[in-house]
Specification:
Layout: H1 34-44, E1 57-66, E2 85-94, E3 109-117, E4 120-127, H2 140-147, H3 158-166, H4 172-178, E5 193-194, E6 199-202, E7 208-217, H5 226-235, H6 239-249, E8 255-264, E9 289-299, H7 304-309, E10 322-323, H8 328-344, H9 419-427, H10 430-444, H11 450-463, H12 465-474
Helix pairs in contact: 2-3, 3-11, 4-9, 10-12, 11-12
Family: Belongs to the catalase family.
GO molecular function: catalase activity; heme binding; metal ion binding
Active site: 54, 127
């Protein structure tokens, strides 16, 4: 017979899990009921701090299979040969909402993939959009503050949202995507994913290229209207989470094709947009999509907290063959993501089963809260040393790149924030444009100050005169003469 007896956290059998120890039938509860105290104390500590952003999420396990030889571009081991499979875990999320918020809000979706490669873990941490609202990490805390709750009313604040966007014209491209039909995916399975930033691939010979990641859903892109989204949010706020779980559970495994755009290093100096500006895309006419492989999700988590909530991702979780770019937003994320996990989950978050590398980890990092392995045992605990401890392998250094200039607080050289947003608007058919205008007008009507509305209308007008005029008319305002 299987031993299935209930125990305390220290392994002792529990004799009564239904009744507290009291002084007589009606007497007060006794402090000596250590099982009760342990249960209550642990219950009080069951919630780790939720993520500041991307708090609401769903995840799944799967695999990545290489379908095209890209070894001439990168020495990354998991991309080394056609047919090679690498296990992975993915977490989808909304950005601004809290842990209990609705899945079907208008918001970008986080798209974070952890590859458990033979050379360590590799994370691609992006969104379901190819661009972002800002392009320098120094603006990120302020931007997220505008998406969160007002410190006085504890309500979402349209004044803050549109004031910030109107003062940050680089946001226009992403705002246009967010307010379009793509702003509310039908399910997590029916949306694309992007690495968003520019990264660098380096091959075995040390030659490099700039790249961008594109995950294309094999289920097709499907979106839902604001009216349907609001109805679902009221009836089933966990709709996307449930849909993903049920699809995998019944064997309808979601899949995405991974492609990259590849830019020669020297093109970065002459391309018509700054290729490191995350508010811009590279034209696929200039740099076509090249197939890399296929991602399939085929297994649900066994425990949400242990796997989805404790999963930690960072664009700084890199492997040999993948390097970073001068993208100012990416540079900030390299610090901020790891640091957020050290605060939220703990200094040893990388050792948790969901985050632990499948290959052996050898380093001199010791101690810290919740260290649950052998903590390096009795091995040498510093480096350099004369006792055969692990040492660096110079061939795995990140690729060198030249730098120049004066240390200063500087922006990007390119400040055309309107061409790509206007191009996107002109690509839309009339129905899509009408939806976009309606969504923006509805979102801006609660803004209390006309000067904020007019400032934002000017951005829309500069992207496309029709775009700005229709927004202005919907708000009962006129496009300022100064911008015409």
């Amino acid at each position: 017979m299987t031993n299935n007896r209930l125990t305390t956290s220290w392994g002792a059998p529990v004799g009564d899990n239904q009744n507290s120890i009291t002084a007589g039938d009606r007497g007060p509860t006794l402090l000596q009921d250590v099982h009760l105290l342990e249960k209550l104390a642990h219950f009080n500590r069951e919630r780790v701090p939720e993520r500041v952003v991307h708090a609401k999420g769903a995840g799944a396990h799967g695999y990545f299979e290489v379908t095209n030889d890209v070894s001439k571009y990168t020495k990354a081991n998991f991309l080394s040969e056609v047919g090679k499979r690498t296990p992975l875990f993915i977490r989808f999320s909304t950005v601004a909402g809290e842990l209990g918020s609705a899945d079907t809000v208008r918001d970008p979706r986080g798209f974070a993939v952890k590859f458990y490669t033979e050379e360590g873990n590799y994370d691609i941490v992006g969104n379901n959009t190819p661009v972002f609202f800002i392009r320098d990490a120094i603006k990120f805390p302020d931007f997220i503050h505008t998406q969160k709750r007002d410190p006085q009313t504890h309500l979402k604040n349209p004044n803050a949202i549109w004031d910030f966007w109107s003062l940050s014209p680089e946001a226009l491209h992403q705002v246009t995507i967010l307010m379009s039909d793509r702003g509310i995916p039908a399910t997590l399975r029916h949306m694309h994913g992007f690495g968003s930033h520019t990264f660098k691939w380096t091959n075995a010979e040390g030659d490099g290229v700039w790249i961008k990641y594109h995950f294309k859903t094999e289920q097709g892109v499907k979106n839902i209207s604001p009216e349907v989204a609001a109805k679902i949010a009221g009836e089933n706020p966990d709709y996307h989470t449930e849909d993903l779980f049920n699809a995998i559970e019944k064997g309808d495994f979601p899949a995405w094709k991974l492609y990259v755009q590849i830019m020669p290093l020297e093109d970065a100096d002459t391309y018509r947009f700054d290729p490191f500006d995350v508010t811009k895309v590279w034209s696929q006419k200039d740099y076509p999509l090249i197939e890399v492989g296929r991602m399939v999700l085929d297994r649900n988590p066994e425990n949400y907290f242990a796997e989805v909530e404790q999963a930690t991702f960072s664009p700084g979780t890199l492997v040999p063959g993948v390097d970073v770019s001068p993208d100012k937003m990416l540079q900030g994320r390299l610090f901020a993501y790891h640091d957020a996990h050290r605060y939220r989950v703990g200094a040893n978050h990388q050792a948790l089963p969901i985050n632990r590398a499948r290959n052996e980890v050898k380093n001199y990092q010791r101690d810290g809260q919740m260290r649950f392995d052998d903590n390096g045992g009795k091995s040498v605990y510093y480096e350099p040393n004369s006792f055969g401890g692990p040492s660096e392998t110079p061939e795995h250094k990140q690729a060198a790149f030249p730098v120049s200039g004066v240390a200063d607080s500087v922006g990007y050289d390119h400040n055309d924030h309107y061409t790509q947003a206007g191009d996107l608007y002109r690509l839309m058919n009339e129905e899509q444009r009408a939806h976009l205008v309606s969504n923006i007008v509805g979102a801006m009507k609660p803004v209390e100050r006309d000067d904020i509305k007019l400032r934002q209308i000017q951005h829309f007008y500069k992207a496309d005169p029709e775009y700005g005029t229709r927004i202005a008319e919907g708000l009962g305002l006129a496009v300022p003469e100064s911008v015409k």
